[in-house]
Every structure is written in structure tokens, then in C-alpha cells.
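**User:** Here is a favour to ask of a fellow structure person. Please take any protein you like and set down a full record of it. No explanation is needed for now; the record alone will do.

**Assistant:**
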Amino acid sequence: MLLKRYEESLADFQQAFKALRGNQLIDYKALGLRYKLYACEVLLNMALSEAQMGKWEKAHEKLVKALDYKTDTKLNIIDKALDSALRQKLFKPVEFPSKVLFRPNKHYVAELEKKDYLGKAKVVSSVVPQDAFSGFAPLQPQVEDGPTRPKEPEVLRALEGEPHTVLFEFVPETSDELAVVPGNIVFVLQKGADNWAYVVFNERRGLVPYNYLERLEISLASKQNGARSQPPNREPPTRPERKPGLTPTGNSSGDTQHKDEEPTDNSYIIKVRFTFTFAVSVPPESPYAILIEKISKKLKRPPSAITLSLTAEATEESVIDASTEMESVWSRASGRRVTLWCKATEQTDENPKSEIHLVAIHSYESSNPEDLSFHEGDTITFLSKVNQDWLEGQCNGNTGIFPASFVEEVPANGQ
């Protein structure tokens, strides 16, 4: 940085921040160096490098991120630097003190070589069958030289509900049901007498047929108990009938379910497959205008921006519009339920919004069904922002969420 090679200094600071592995600080006193390296200081120097190159917006983002890593003793330097960045004024970098020397104690170092402070790690309890892993890295594929993976929503709630493994894929038909795929681990909160279970998965709650699940035993010696037999490759069981009063609602756990529609006895239930799946109800033999109005209100988009079809591919034969004979649509109903596919374009007044495209700067391998996998260099269409660390997008025909640190935005001019 002192040599004004700001791009190189920024790369060095990024490497140092990644090596911190999410820690607030590293204390080198145990190695004979009386110095503590703080993550917020590294972020401050990254922000200064960006500021030196005129990228004040990125510098501001780095300093805001530094607030999450600050400690009480480092609060003032972050606040002062942020105030300077807002006024587009340069601030002082954090430098290693020149008088601090590395002086390891010979006897202390010798003792470190002889003692094993950690010992041999042992798996005591795991939801993964035959889990013998005893390292410190997570049990999932890692991206080589990629950024640190942000913290995911908590999936396993060992203190709430009973763990079960999903045996078959379940596609919800109403808004209070939950989509799951084989291999997911869900926690059953309530089980109804009509063979429906109220479960929690990935911080989402909903109903799943209990005969789609298998109880997962978590013992203190999962390795010694042997492998749990894999479910046979067979067709999923028949969907159980929902019976009022017997189907668990989850209200006893304090969770209020959001319902898209409350259908009447003779209404048609329309399951709409969009970037997410939702359901609406319409009166029997409704015209196209009523159907499109319901879906338009749900998506909060004008009817002109919505295209409905009977199949996943919107062909000339499958598209539903004002000229479509709706009798042919309602004739496809099974048990007063119809599945439609929906595509929509964002519009402002009469001019469609331009799509935001992202480019993958690292490959990402999904570890959950709702994640989106892609390779370095792939182009991703941005859909929405989940939180400060996760985004939702489309790539290669698939939709899912992914870490924001794995991509960067493509400028409007494509350069």
C-alpha cells in the first residue's frame, strides 16, 4: 500500500481476511509474538485500498462489514474511518507496530512439540449414518481458493421435535404443506391421526405425509450400530387424505401458518409453479379474467406481465390467455385441483425492467436441495436478495439460493 500498488495490496488483505476464517481476532502471544490481529483492521485496510482507487462505495461496504467484526477496543478507528469514507476523505491505515519483535521461548516451544493439547477427536453423536469424521472442516465439498461460506440457516434443531429422514419426494398441493426431497432430515413437531405430520425443515414449517418419513435414531455409538439400511427404490405411498381436526396445525407450538387461500368446498385449487410454488382458489368454471386476477394479486404484477401455460414449456398449444376455452383447462382437474406453470416479467409503467446478471467468480457446489450449483464463469440471473449473505437466482435452467460472495455483478455495458 505504501508503494501505491493498491490492487496488489487489496489482494493481500483479502487473503489475510480469508485466512482469519471468520474469527474476530488471532492472538499470536502463544507463539512468542505479543500482537493481536483483528479482522476489523484487515477490513479497514481493504476499504482504504478501495478508496485509494476511487471506489468509495465498495470502501463504504467494507467498513460497514467491519462493524460486525469490531471489538470494543477497535470501535473508534472503525467509526472514524467510516465517517471519513462518507465524506470521501482518506483515512490512516492500520500498520504493524515496528517495535514488536518475535521472540519465542525455546523451552516453551519444546513443550509445544511434546504435548498434544487436543488429543484424538471422536464422533459422539451425529445425524449422518456411519459418521467417522473427526476433523474441523464441515462434511461437504469445499471450493478451492473460494471465499468463506456464509453461515447457513440452522437446519438441525435437536431440541425441538423428533428427527426423521425423508424417503420420498413430496410436492405440496396447498400453502400449508412443505416440499421435501429424499435424504432431507426433518423434525416432527406433531403427528395427526390421519397420517399427516407437522414438521420443521430449514427454519420452515409445514405438513408432510408421515408415511413419507422414517424415524432417525441418534445414538451415542452410531458407528458401532452399523449402517442404516437405505430405503428401497419404490414408488411413494398414496397421499393420505386431509381430515379436519385430525391434521396437525402447529398452533400448539406457537407458529401461525400463512395460507395463500382459504378454498370453499366447491372451489378449484390452482397450484401455480413459479420461481416458487403457491396455490390460489377460484370458483368452479371461472373465466380467464378471474384466474389471472387472482394470480396477479398474488405476484403483485400486472396481468400483461404474466404468462400461464399447461406445461413447463410455454408452447403455442399450452399457453393460456384471454382467447383460451377455459373448459379445456377445467377438464384437466383431478380432485378439483389443477397445476399450471407461470412466467412473469418485471415491468415499470410500460417499460420492462432490465434483468440483473451476475458472473460466478468461484464454483459453488450445493449442499441443500434449495441451493443453486454453478461453475466459475457461469452467468446467473439475479432474482432476489435473501439476506446480506445469500441471494436467489437462476442458472442453467435451475433456480436456487447461493452465497453472495461467490459472484459479482456484470455491468450494464457487459464489460
Observations:
- The two ends are 27 Å apart (CA to CA).
- The chain has a mean pLDDT of 76.
- The chain has seven helices and 19 strands.
